[in-house]
Design a protein that fits this description.
It is a single chain. By secondary structure, this protein is an alpha+beta fold. Helices cover about 35% and strands about 25% of the residues. It has seven helices and eleven strands. The chain has an eight-stranded antiparallel beta sheet with strand order 4-9-11-10-6-7-5-8, covered by helices on one side. It has a three-stranded antiparallel beta sheet with strand order 1-3-2. Strand 2 and strand 3 form a beta hairpin. The longest helix is centred in the middle third of the chain and has 27 residues.
Length: about 260
Amino acid sequence: MDEDLLPIGQFARLSRLSVKQLRHYDELGLLAPAFVDGETGYRYYRASQARAALSIGLLRSLDVPLAVIGQVLSGAAGALGEVRVSLEAELARRKRTLASLERVMAEGLPSAQVRVVAEPARRVAVLRERAAGPADVGRATSAAVARLMAEAGGGQVIGLFPVDLGDVFDIAVAVALEPGALCPGGGAEVEVLPGGTFACATHVGPYDQISLTAHAVLAWCAERLHPLGGPIREVYVSDPAVVSPDQLVTHLMIPLEEQS
């Protein structure tokens, strides 16, 4: 056997990885040993492999997935671009979470005033967008609103969200149509938005803190044993293009009875 070969334990200490990690990376094809004893199955490495091993450890410390690490080690261009986008999205989500936590610390648990309102049925243009989990709701909503407004040209926008948010689900945005108006196109469909009785609370502030007001309405409904219907509506009163995030007004509505 080559005298330059290092036992797996010694190589693990040299590369600051565990023996278990080295075995796992071998199984994944990330870092194969230089030699495997056919009788014992024991793995041996060369000192020249330490740079690759340390690189794997560095990238894992930066939350780079193992599949992407394989691309980096093979020299694939731009392999880390998607990781950067993912980390930026996670950072933005954490900032939104922190802002909501700070609001709860300053104002206490949400206790928005809830009122009962009656809404008529409306003929609307509806456009749907697929969301990849609760953290993707903001992006999906913004994308749907932008597409709908590009076709409809204006009007009050209503967001429609399922009560239970799974791993993948559709959100919808709607805009009221004048009598006789045609569907604006762009993938939108004409539907009748049901009327009925709703529990309603007004949210003032950034869209990413609407969940605080939603909590207050859901608690109000639960205390009164109202079964949760859907979809939950967000009626966007303000134009975010001209109103600051802290002053945005949104009516959040949960149906209290079978809609008509």
